[in-house]
């Protein structure tokens, strides 16, 4: 096995482990915290989490098997089923990210009317659309036998037809698929999150003006306090930019190499380097490992829920330990009473 294959195998194992653990943790927080379940974005996050978990359990292990063995994983029908799931889950997760960005945009730009604009019924309708959108492309690919094992990606995924007419149809299908998924979601993410960033910077400027006016009035304030206030203003502006860059950047970095490679592949006459194909596929998989941190686990509500779960588990274990110690103490005292009873000539009872 070459060094590149070892490196790609290690990368896939790392992505699978992180993706499974982080998404399971998000699911536990969702089930544990009733407040998260009541929120409308919780439905989108739950859908995204299930898509990531199913992708981690179906497509990722088979890609790892393909890299390690350089062989077709399973039978033809099994690979078609996995390829169907790969197309459906990837498309569904992308659209869930777009739904989350629209929800954040409404919450920030229209905070007073958010609950009347975005309700659970609207979220269910949006999720139904993501499922119909994803199923339509997946069913078309499966019915036309455009899913199977792709050697360049070592995966059960979309693959070219052999006939010239089929190749033309597949090229049109691929362009339409990526235009209505990757390109559409990229535009939605950029428009919504940039508007959110604009509103956040406007509020930061208002806070900065009030802070500076307060500092001017407080002439006796210590210079160190004034410096800390100015540093907090700078951190506040950077925090908003960093969050927006994370939302858009992770999506573009993870998916764009794979999507661009799939489009360029349509016009190539010779197969490209399979190591590059597996690397692009691994980057697309890595989005499933990033999503729990980007959308959930780094937020205060989820961190607090995780700490509450850990504290509850530790408290329960400490209670079990104290009960065990009390039982051991009772046994020891009973033994000592029995020994003293023997020495003084009294019965043990």
TrEMBL record:
<dbReference type="Pfam" id="PF00001">
    <property type="entry name" value="7tm_1"/>
</dbReference>
<dbReference type="GO" id="GO:0004930">
    <property type="term" value="F:G protein-coupled receptor activity"/>
</dbReference>
<dbReference type="InterPro" id="IPR051880">
    <property type="entry name" value="GPC_Orphan_Receptors"/>
</dbReference>
<dbReference type="InterPro" id="IPR017452">
    <property type="entry name" value="GPCR_Rhodpsn_7TM"/>
</dbReference>
<protein>
    <submittedName>
        <fullName>G-protein coupled receptor 26</fullName>
    </submittedName>
</protein>
<keyword id="KW-0675">Receptor</keyword>
<dbReference type="GO" id="GO:0007189">
    <property type="term" value="P:adenylate cyclase-activating G protein-coupled receptor signaling pathway"/>
</dbReference>
<dbReference type="GO" id="GO:0005886">
    <property type="term" value="C:plasma membrane"/>
</dbReference>
<dbReference type="InterPro" id="IPR000276">
    <property type="entry name" value="GPCR_Rhodpsn"/>
</dbReference>
């Amino acid at each position: 096995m070459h060094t590149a294959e070892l490196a790609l195998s290690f990368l896939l194992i790392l992505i699978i482990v992180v993706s499974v653990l982080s998404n399971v943790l998000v699911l536990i927080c969702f089930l544990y915290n009733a407040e998260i379940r009541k929120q409308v974005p919780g439905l989108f996050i739950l859908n995204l989490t299930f898509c990531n978990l199913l992708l981690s359990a179906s497509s990722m292990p088979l890609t790892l098997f393909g890299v390690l063995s350089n062989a077709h994983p399973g039978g033809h029908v099994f690979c078609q089923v996995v390829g169907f799931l790969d197309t459906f889950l990837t498309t569904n997760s992308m659209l869930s990210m777009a739904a989350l960005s629209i929800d954040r945009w409404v919450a920030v730009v229209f905070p007073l009317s958010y609950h009347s604009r975005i309700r659970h019924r609207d979220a269910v309708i949006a999720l139904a659309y993501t499922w119909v959108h994803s199923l339509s492309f997946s069913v078309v690919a499966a019915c036309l036998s455009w899913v199977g094992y792709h050697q360049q990606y070592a995966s059960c995924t979309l693959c070219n037809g052999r006939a010239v007419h089929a190749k033309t149809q597949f090229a049109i299908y691929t362009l339409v698929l990526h235009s209505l998924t990757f390109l559409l979601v990229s535009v939605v993410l950029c428009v919504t999150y940039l508007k959110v960033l604009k509103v956040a910077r406007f509020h930061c400027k208002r806070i900065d003006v009030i802070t500076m006016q307060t500092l001017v009035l407080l002439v006796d304030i210590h210079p160190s306090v004034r410096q800390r206030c100015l540093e907090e203003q700078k951190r506040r502006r950077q925090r908003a930019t960093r969050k927006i860059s994370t939302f858009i950047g992770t999506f573009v970095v993870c998916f764009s190499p794979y999507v661009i490679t799939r489009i360029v592949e349509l016009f190539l006459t010779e197969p490209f380097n399979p190591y590059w194909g597996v690397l692009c596929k691994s980057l697309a998989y890595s989005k499933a490992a990033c999503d729990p941190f980007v959308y959930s686990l780094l937020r205060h509500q989820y961190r607090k829920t995780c700490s509450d779960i850990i504290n509850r588990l530790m408290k329960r274990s400490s209670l079990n330990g104290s009960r065990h110690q009390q039982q051991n103490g009772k046994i020891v005292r009973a033994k000592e009473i029995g020994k003293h009873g023997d020495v003084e000539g009294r019965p043990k009872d």
